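Q: Hi! Curious about what Allantoinase looks like structurally. Here's the sequence.
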Amino acid sequence: MLQIVGGHWNEHQKSEDVWKLKQMDSVNVETCAHYLAFAAEDIPEGATQYECAPPLREAHYRELLWKALMGGDIDMITIDHSPSTIDLKLLEEGDFLKAWGGISGIQVRLTRLCTQAITIVGLHVS
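A: Let's find out. The predicted structure is below.
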């Protein structure tokens, strides 16, 4: 069976659209850990180490992603790891349009994701 995995789910898709797609057995929905862990308004101006595509959204959309995940609309959390050397992130310029896309830091994502799960959705860890 061919399995279709779509692009990163972000604020542009409506839950109804995702639900219709999920009626097909070969469709899974994913989002990346950084969309669940970070919000646009928390990113300092010019902090190009957070440059990714699609870009990080506001906290409201992050909370909607958590709701969709906890409700079963999102099947998996992926990482979309796109490492680069620090010079490719152009930290001194702070220009998101020129900086290398993708968020490095796979080694800290699980910790950040768990912290957000506890903070945002009240997930209990025992």
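A: A fun detail: The beta strands are 4-5, 27-28, 30-32, 76-78.
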